[in-house]
Task: structure prediction
Amino acid sequence: MSPVIIIFAVVLFLVIAYLVLRFFKLRKKKPKEKKVKEKKVKEKKVKKQKESKTSNLVELKSSYVDVVDKFLFRKELKVLVLISRILPRGYVVFPKIGLDTILEPVGKKDLYDSVKHENIDLVIFDELTMKPKIAIDIFDGSIGDEQVEVASPMIIKALEIAKLPLISFKVKTDYTEAEIKEPIYKALGLATTESSEEKEKTE
Result:
């Protein structure tokens, strides 16, 4: 065998051995590189989240909230006080009740979705169960003050279907006890006539 062939065979063997060793080294490195890449991706994600939180805090610094000056107008407050006085035991009245808190959809949600963002001026509840008993609308008929019956027929329909009575009171300078009491007691299924003891007290 000639020396040239021997040299060639040795060189070829060394090249093959180098390639095999390199292949195995690269194969071992790949999982490590993958972990490194995953770590970098995770770090970038965390960094972005931190940056996002920081930017949100910066935006909030120039954003404020405050308590409203008037939660109820005088006309609403007046009726609320009068109703509170004439309500029998076992009932309470609350103002500005969202329909989404006293109604729930049954079957299709179309009707519920059309009224869920609306409010009722006052709602009378059963104090023991907190079940809504009467919805009350207060209106004065002036420009910009839309009566529930006129402005939102869908509200009327929703309340009718839910069997929740709706009473409307027009804003007045003075109310008699009877005009507030009678429709409420009637809707509650209660008698408005005074007892003999109450009559004796008034006499």
Observations:
- Residues 195-203 have pLDDT under 50 and may be disordered.
